[in-house]
Description:
Largest sheet: 7 strands, mixed
Number of domains: 2
CATH class of the largest domain: Alpha Beta
Helix content: 25-40%
Low-confidence stretches: none
Mean pLDDT: 96
Order of helices and strands: EHHEHEHEEHEEEHHHEEHEEH
Bound molecules: pyridoxal-5'-phosphate
Structural class: alpha/beta
CATH topology of the largest domain: Aspartate Aminotransferase, domain 2
Strand order of the largest sheet: 2-8-7-6-5-3-4
CATH architecture of the largest domain: 3-Layer(aba) Sandwich
Number of helices: 10
Radius of gyration: 21 Å
CATH superfamily of the largest domain: Type I PLP-dependent aspartate aminotransferase-like (Major domain)
Oligomer: single chain
Amino acid sequence: MQPYVPGEQPPAGARVIKLNTNENPYPPSPRVAEAIAAELTADAATGTPGERLRLYSDPAASALRAVAAEQAGLPIECVLHGNGSDELLAMIVRACVGEGETVAYPYPTYVLYETLARAQGAQLAVYDAPSDFALPSALFTTDARLIFVASPNSPSGVRYPNEQLERLARGRPAALVVVDEAYATFADGDAMALVGELPNLVVLRTLSKSHSLAGMRVGLLYGPAELLRGVAKVKDSYNLDRLAIAAGAASLRDVAWTASNVARIRGARQRLLSGLRALGLEVLPSEANFVFARFASAAAAAAAYRFLRDQGILVRYFPARMLDDGLRITVGTDDQVEAVLAALQARPTVS
Ligand SMILES: Cc1ncc(COP(=O)(O)O)c(C=O)c1O
C-alpha cells in the first residue's frame, strides 16, 4: 500500500508563507498557554515543576469532553476524544470495518480515508464527484459498512446540505456515516443538529484548523453514546496527554477568540477568491479555510506551484486525476493573501 503523504512541513525558522496544510495563520488563544503552564506548575507538596507529568493523563479526557459536550448541548457520553481527528478516523475504521468489508467515499476527498481502509484490508467503493463536486448519486446506493463524507470537502471546499446527509444515513441504515467536519467552523452551516437524531451518523471535529492547535493534536467525535462506546474499544488508553487535554479545554472555552479569527479568515477567503478570479482562474465557492483554483491545464498548475515555491510560498498541488489542473491554497492573513495574489500575477505564462 502507499503511505499517506502529509503536506510539506518546512523546518522551524524557515522564511516561507505556508499555505499548504490548512493551518490557522493566527495563534491560539492566550488561555491555551496559560492552561499548559498551569498543568506544568509545581505542586505545593514537592515544589518541582512538571511534577504532574509523572502520572498518566486522564484516559477519559473528562475535562476536555465536558466542555465539548456542554457547548454541543449533548451528554458527555456523546463525545469521544482523539489525538487529532486522524486518530479518531483510524479508530472508526478499526472498530467498524471487518477485513473484506467495504468503505465508501466520494472522490476527490481526504486521502487518509483510502490509506486507513487499505491498512484494514477493506474493499474500497470510491465514487467520482460530478463536475460541481456535489455528492455523487451512487453513494446513496452503496452497500458499504462505513461511509466517509468530508463536509466541507477537501480540496473542493464544498459543503453538503444536511438534508442530503440525513437522506444518506436514513437510506443506508446498515452503514455508519461519518461526517468529517474538520472545516465546518469556517462554513455557513454544519451537521451537528443531526447528532442524536440518527443512530448511524457521527460528526467529527478537530481543533487543528479553527482553533489554531494543529500541533497539539486534539480531535472530537460526536455521536450516539452506544456507538462511541464501540469505537472507544480500540482507543489507546492515554491517547491525549495532559497538556493536550488542558490546552483543548481552554481553547474551546475561549469562544470569542475562535469567532474573531474565523471571521478574519472568512473575510480573507473572499478576497482570495475574488483576486484569483480576477487573474482569470476558475475558483469553486469554498466554505472552508482554503480555496481550489483551476488553471488552463495541468502543466500550468504545476508551473504555478513551482513558481510560488521559488518565491517562498507553499501551496498544495495534487498530481492526481481531476485535481492536477488546480492548486489548493490555504487562506492566510490578509498580507499572505496579497502576497500569493501578487506572485501569481507575476508568474510566467504557461498554457
Ligand atoms: C478532511 C480532514 N479531516 C481530518 C483532518 C485531520 O485533522 P487532524 O488530525 O489535525 O485533527 C484533515 C487535515 O487536514 C482534513 O483535511
